[in-house]
Design goal:
The complex is a heterodimer of chains A (about 400) and B (about 325).
Chain A lengths: L27 E2 L19 H26 L13 H9 L6 E3 L5 H7 L3 H8 L33 H14 L6 E6 L6 H12 L4 E7 L2 E2 L2 E2 L10 H6 L3 E6 L3 H18 L3 E6 L18 H8 L3 H12 L4 H23 L19 H16 L14
Parallel strand pairs in A: 1-7, 2-3, 3-4, 4-8, 7-8
Antiparallel strand pairs in A: 5-6
Chain B lengths: L1 E4 H15 L3 E5 L15 H5 L4 E3 L4 H14 L2 E5 L10 H8 L2 H4 L10 E6 L14 H5 L5 E3 L4 H13 L4 E6 L7 E4 L12 E4 L4 E5 L3 H14 L4 E5 L2 E3 L3 H11 L2 E8 L4 H13 L8 E5 L9 H4 L3 H12 L2
Parallel strand pairs in B: 2-3, 2-4, 4-5, 5-7, 6-7, 10-11, 10-13, 13-14
Antiparallel strand pairs in B: 1-8, 6-12, 9-11
Helix pairs in contact in B: 1-7, 3-4, 8-12, 9-10
């Protein structure tokens, strides 16, 4: 809105002095110390015991799911997996501050948000095993979840594409008169993509009620943040685009919850985007195809292990008298069994039928796809033993 | 009926769509108050307000990304890319997002309501950054439709179909005809079918296929051929993806010869796809090799624009060569 080509008198300078980075350090919002104790000046948001426990359960469940699936990948049961260990606080607590009408657009490491929204162990497993009960019909690699009923946009691998889409989705929500926002997650690496800049600027100019939540977890696969950008993190860019911005301790779930709650309130009231930079750490490998020992030290990992967001939340619950050790252990062991059973059930479900291959490309399969399907089916009939027959059935 | 040029027909289609459905939104660079650099969106902001017709920042990937989000939310975005030459920053959003949204989600989410409009092609002394015909890049992308009108009547009817189509459509507009092509256009709403070619003129000796601005070129070449006693069947493909193989194959089965004309460079142009499909369908009917009269495999030139163009003379010569093969 400002045109600084003709600055007002106080903005004039007569010395050649380039402005440097870090003139105004951006503070980081922190509410709980590493022992889960609220900082004295922190104004904690209202949070019921039930919701606090639900947040804890979602974080712990996410970690159990991740552990289970990394093991399953090692056993050769799934081709690929990607964990969010160490970032559960940033993800679950921010999702917990949304309403069910809000759209979530994630990058790919935000299964905690889906857990929060109520995705079941079996739903996770159906997607991870690409069977015909997967709503994506087994078309995408494991962890590319999506669920219309839960307002969780189906994940796509290309990075940052969801950022301008979130701007558009939020604009549509505003035009539809919904008191709803779009919560868009991405990593600090993705913020180097053009779509980040395009999307934030579009959202700012067109006043889209979206929360852009950057998980600054220190690494984009092996590339450390200091080789990704030089400026003051991702937060400084929000200010550059005229977007209200918060930097938050991403391992402090209370701070993440408070920040997202406030961001949502502002986004709706003022019809504008908000940027949150969650400072966190990817304790996990990038994916099961990655080995972090090649690019970072165990010592560094240890420092962050001591800042575990799940443990910090547990300490907080304990201080409130909301943590029952025995009940928690029992719940945890039930969840482990549930996950194992869901995996066993999902992995034997057949993949979608061959005829589904040409579905959903267009609204109705056009002539050329129908012809190609017929040719493929005839080929399969000629070579019945050459291909995995699981795909020839019509599902279960 | 009213006399309109192609630009007015596009404008009329947009106005018709916005009147019929408040979910239709029109946006892009300079499309707001200014009405677009070609004036295709003139007066739409006045009529429908700034929330439904608006300027965007200068970012093609942002425009299409934003449009993808709007479409998946349930709106009907009509996004303008100012020149087809500038669509490439949006390529990832189109190829990986627009086209795959429905497939990857098993039909849960989709961008079917999206229409992307872009003026394309040469003939306005625009050099290589204001003259490109990038249609074949998009015909290689399952999930989107590619549509190109040849005149005002087609522009309005096809654009209204595109906006109402349950599939995303890339709608390339032949900008050299924006003001040059004038014709009668119904003032009421009407739609022309997507995926269907139109036989403009029946003939017996050779089938000529083109789309967009090149249709008038093959018509002119057909007129010249007629004077030499050669009867040309003239086909406007209209939709390139999915395309009307049946109409072209039926025609070639009858005439035994096919000539394809497009402005884009010949190598890997959409003519290659047509030629490959027709030799498969009509091999025993062919009397001569399929002929392609296309742009050179160079960037689009400025000073030599007229030499580069696959004009009526090049087309006429190729017709004669094909018939005398």
């Amino acid at each position: 809105m400002q045109d600084n080509r003709q600055p007002a008198a106080p903005l004039l300078t007569h010395k050649v002095e380039p402005i440097s980075n870090g003139l105004h350090a951006i503070p980081m919002l922190a509410m709980l110390d590493p022992q889960g104790k609220p900082y004295e000046q922190a104004e904690l948001p209202e949070l019921s015991q039930d919701k606090a426990i639900k947040i804890h359960h979602a974080m712990v469940f996410t970690r159990l799911l991740d552990e289970r699936m990394i093991a399953a990948q090692r056993q050769g049961r799934v081709s690929f997996y990607l964990a969010c260990t160490g970032e559960e606080g940033a993800i679950v607590a921010s999702a917990a501050a949304t309403e069910s009408l809000d759209m979530i657009m994630s990058q790919y490491r935000e299964q905690g948000a889906l857990v929060w929204r109520g995705y079941t162990p079996r739903q996770f497993m159906d997607q991870l095993f690409s069977n015909h009960l997967d709503p994506n019909k087994g078309r995408q690699m494991p962890i590319h979840y999506g669920d219309k009923a839960l307002n969780f946009m189906t994940i796509s691998s290309p990075l940052a594409t969801q950022i301008p889409q979130a701007a558009g989705y939020a604009y549509g929500q505003k035009l539809s008169g919904q008191a709803a926002i779009t919560l868009c997650y991405f990593g600090e690496g993705a913020a180097s993509e053009g779509d980040f800049h395009a999307g934030l600027n579009m959202a700012a100019v067109l006043k889209c009620p979206a929360i852009f939540l950057c998980r600054n977890n220190g690494y984009a696969i092996s590339t450390p943040a200091e080789e990704q950008f030089v400026g003051d993190g991702i937060a400084s860019r929000g200010i550059g685009y005229g977007i209200k911005t918060l930097r938050v301790d991403g391992n402090d779930a209370m701070a993440m919850y408070a920040a997202t709650l406030k961001a949502r309130e502002i986004a709706i009231a003022e019809s504008c985007p908000i940027l949150i930079e969650a400072m966190t750490y990817r304790l996990a490998a990038h994916s099961t195809s990655d080995d972090p020992s090649g690019y970072r030290s165990q010592k560094e990992e240890q420092i962050w292990r001591e800042r575990d967001p799940v443990l910090r939340w547990q300490y907080y619950l304990q201080q409130c008298g909301w943590f029952d050790q025995d009940a928690h252990h029992q719940w945890q062991s039930e969840m482990k069994n549930t996950l194992l059973q869901a995996m066993k059930d999902a992995e034997i479900v057949p993949v979608a039928p061959v005829s589904s291959m040409i579905e959903d490309v267009y609204h109705t399969p056009p002539w050329h796809l129908q012809r190609q399907l017929t040719q493929l089916q005839q080929h399969l009939e000629r070579h019945p033993d050459a291909y995995d027959l699981r795909c020839l059935g019509e599902g279960e | 009926m009213a006399k309109m040029n192609l630009l007015q027909a596009v404008n009329h289609a947009l106005q018709t769509a916005m009147e019929a459905d408040e979910k239709v939104l029109v946006f892009g660079e300079d499309v707001g108050h200014f009405g677009g650099v070609f004036r295709a969106t003139s007066h739409l902001q006045e009529k429908f307000g700034k929330t439904r017709c608006f300027n965007t920042p200068l970012t093609e990937q942002g425009i299409v990304g934003f449009a993808n989000g709007l479409a998946s939310q349930g709106h009907k975005p009509v996004a303008e890319i100012q020149f087809a030459d500038y669509i490439y920053p949006a390529f990832d959003q189109i190829v990986n997002e627009t086209a795959k949204a429905r497939y990857r989600s098993g039909g849960q989410f989709e961008c079917g309501n999206l229409t992307i409009r872009a003026p394309y092609g040469g003939g306005i002394a625009g050099g290589h950054y204001h003259s490109q015909s990038p249609e074949s890049f998009f015909t290689h992308v399952p999930g989107i439709r590619v549509v190109i009108p040849r005149g005002p009547y087609q522009a309005k009817g096809l654009l209204l179909s595109a906006i109402n189509s349950p599939d995303p459509v890339i709608f390339f507009e032949p900008k050299r005809l924006y003001r040059a092509a004038v014709g009668e256009v119904p003032e009421e709403s009407y739609q022309l079918p997507l995926g269907i070619a139109e036989v403009l003129r029946e003939g017996t000796d050779i089938s000529l296929v083109a789309w967009g601005a090149q249709v008038e070129v093959i018509v002119k070449a057909a007129d010249m051929a007629a004077e030499k006693g050669i009867s040309c069947e003239v086909i406007d493909l209209q939709s390139l993806l999915p395309w009307d193989l049946e109409t072209v194959a039926t025609s070639v089965t009858k005439t035994g010869r096919l000539l394809i004309n497009h402005e884009a460079p010949v190598t890997s142009g959409f003519g290659a796809e047509i030629a490959a499909s027709i030799q498969q369908e009509c091999f025993l009917s062919l009397e001569a090799p399929i002929s392609r009269v296309c742009g050179l495999d160079t960037p689009f030139p400025l000073a030599h624009e007229k030499l580069y163009m696959p004009d009526h003379l090049k087309t006429f010569d190729a017709i004669v060569a094909c018939v005398n093969y």
